[in-house]
What we know:
Blueprint: E1 4-9, H1 16-26, E2 32-36, H2 51-61, H3 64-68, E3 70-74, H4 82-96, E4 110-114, E5 131-134, H5 144-153, H6 163-172, H7 176-194, E6 203-213, E7 216-222, E8 231-232, E9 234-237, H8 244-256, H9 262-267, E10 269-275, E11 285-294, E12 309-316, H10 331-339
Parallel strand pairs: 1-2, 1-4, 2-3, 4-5, 6-11
Antiparallel strand pairs: 6-7, 6-9, 7-8, 7-12, 10-11
Helix pairs in contact: 2-6, 5-7
Amino acid sequence: MHTHLIYIGRFEPPHNGHFATIRKALEQTENLIIFIGSHETCRSLRNPFTTEERLEMFKIALTPEEQKKITFIPIHDSNYNHPEWVRAVVGATLAVAPTTAAVALPAHAIGIIGHKKDSTSYYLDLFPEWEFVEMPLLEGGLSSTEIRREWFSGTLTQEHIPLAVYNYLKSKENEEWAKNLKEEYRLVEEYKKEWASTPYPPIFVAGDALVICKEHILLIERGAFPGKGLYAMAGGFLDSNEPIRHCAIRELIEETGIELSPKELDKSIKDHRVFDDPHREPRGRMISHTFFFDLQVPELPKLKAADDASAAFWFPLKDIDKIRSKFGGDHYRIIKNMLS
């Protein structure tokens, strides 16, 4: 028996496999801590449900007795800074299960549960101070990915989810955000069909522009799917005949109409990093080369949105955390990484 067990996941949405794992864990502990990942991210094909909605799905499918033994903790993603994410998980755990001198927990009192099924389970090895408690592959290795596909395509059945969760998902189908995601899913699937006959999955390269000027950051609002209406850095696909550095500058000018010349912009580049989370783009593998532009000009340059952007604007850098859930994809996390 462990005094506390840790269960980490995105639960988009929670399914029978998750609930079977929870009940297996509750046979081994009186205190289960469930971390709900991807907290305060934008709605997307990978993360369509808010933290509050996922919490609601858990609570309508668990008994009151089970809920008394469970502590739910939302956790932000930190794809490009694993140490930061680990510190956040450990800190939140110790707030619930203290290991101070006053409350001395025995060795292996805290365990982390999971199943190392593929590369997505890497996080289970990031907590050597906790005992790893391997769970069997319950419900045939059921994945939320398949349930999301059914929900987006209008073919959802109750086979792999509790009835209460099924009814909850059906009640959300006609909300405006759900309709938008279903349209995005349709467009993404059509896009993938265009590349289906290639001998290898395509890998796309993008040049993105993180632009800072006078304590403001330059953002665009995306004018088309994927991520229509969400905020992002200016950027786009690499042309076959240009260096990536030039791609970032070209896309910056095309999408924002910024009143600076390519030469002026090129001189302002202070850093360049690569961001390659395999799940950062729904259309396929997309690797971002992000360039940091530090503009040293007397006033904020004028902007005029065009191309893929429906709006371009300067936003106070000090307030960026307030709009983290409005960023498309991993752009918020890229910005935080570049500016750290």
